[in-house]
Amino acid sequence: MKRLLPTPLLSVALFVLWLLLNQSISAGHLLLAAVLAVAIPLLTAGLRPLPVRIRRPGVVLRLLLTVAADSLRSNAAVVRLLLRTGPAQHRAGFVQVPLDVRDPNALAVLAGIVCITPGTAWAELSRDRSVLLLHVLELHDAAAIAADIKQRYERPLMEIFE
For the residues 65-70, what does the mean pLDDT come to? Predict the structure, then answer.
């Protein structure tokens, strides 16, 4: 069974999602949902670098709250920036964040976190996975931004995944 369904929860979610999106439980939709629920996880298995092992679930909750609060604060800052009248007062730029985290899942989560936060438009991971390059909308102090990312996001991710 494990071989047929490498990620059973994903398969169940895909099956239910297909039926909900189509608002039908006809025989054809049930069959197609079952085929997709088995085929998609099998076809995408190579894209999942490692099985996820969460070491500290409490840290996950703390990180989620931190990201939510930071996202709200960042949204407000971007809105204020966009509503400002007169010439542009912000200086966009790039920030290099040296990384200590090595777990591929943690790196993926870190990249996702920094990309969903308004004010950062883009992120790239170096080939050796030692540096995260970010484009930020308002760059005042690159070292402070890098230190903040390491403290607020990288450190908890290391506790969770490594």
Answer: 93
Whether 52 contacts 34, CB under 8 Å = no
pTM: 0.67
- Classify the C-alpha dihedral 6-7-12-16 as positive or negative: negative
Q: How far is CA 125 from CA 16, 93, 113, 133, 158, in A?
A: 34, 16, 13, 6, 17
Residue 154 near residue 99, CB atoms below 8 Å = yes
CATH 1.10.10 for domain 57-161? no
| CA–CA separation, 116 and 126 (whole Å) | 19
pLDDT at residue 1, as a whole number: 45
Q: In a 3-state reduction of DSSP, which class is residue 103?
A: coil
Distance between CA 83 and CA 10 in Å, rounded? Answer: 42
Residue ranges with strand state E in the chain: 93-98, 120-125, 131-136
